[in-house]
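INTERNAL TRANSFER SHEET
From: sequence group
To: structure group
Subject: DNA-binding transcriptional MerR regulator

Please process the attached sequence and return the structure record in the designated field. Keep the field labels unchanged so the import script can parse them.
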Amino acid sequence: MKEKYLVSEIAKYFGVTNDTIRYYDKLGIISPKKDKNNNYRYYSRGDIICFSYVFKLKNIELPLKDINTMLNDSSLKYAASVIEDHEQRIDDKIKKLQQLKSVINDYRKCFNNAIENINVIKLSENPNIIYREIEEPNGSVIENMSYFQNLTMMHVPLFTFCIDKELFLSDMFYNNVKESRKYYKYALSLKDEEELISKEDFPHKDFNIIKPKKWLTSVVKFYTNKDYSAILKIREYVEQKRMEIDGPVLLRAISFKNNIYNNCDYYEVYIPIK
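Return from structure group:
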């Protein structure tokens, strides 16, 4: 094994660029020593061992400033504390990524449900739904979202139109859905897949809860300001089957297409049935 190594040799040995080795030198992490015979700067065999240590720490995403301190100016106790702090940061990242994955999974299920059930009307026993109305005119989606974030970070509520059952069954609704929209209430709603409402500390005063025997569900597509007939087909189905609605009709927004030629929205429809 050689005694002295050039920057290019160290870089090749560890599979990095010459600039990376020079940058570590600039930071003072590992610096070569000048040979008095030819004024060249060389790394030693001992430096190779140190570089191996440095790259292992870098591979676990430890900041270079911490690596520098651990290598040049610290005790084992300090090194242990740095690693423990870094482990906590990694745990926090994992938690956030798990939350993000859960939210992405919600969207994936929403989109797949829309693909499979567009205009399909069926009875189902879905989870209870938790919702919170956005009070007008000063209500804030962000402010109301915070109530749900206090409940769970694993799922995100959907913007929801709440239609009183009396309005849904009225002649005005049947004859002019577009005009009836001004009577909709705005809300955020969440499927209670985590059984949140069964917890002792659930803040019942902050939310409305729908726990029907059955849900009549579908997915509808509205052409903005043009065609809302899909919801009327569900209304007709309710009347034909002589179903008794047991609460507000929920239109949960899942996707939007917004362009000058063809605006359309997709909604999950949830109707509580006795």
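Handover comment: DSSP finds ten helices and eleven strands in the chain. The mean pLDDT is 93.
Transfer complete.
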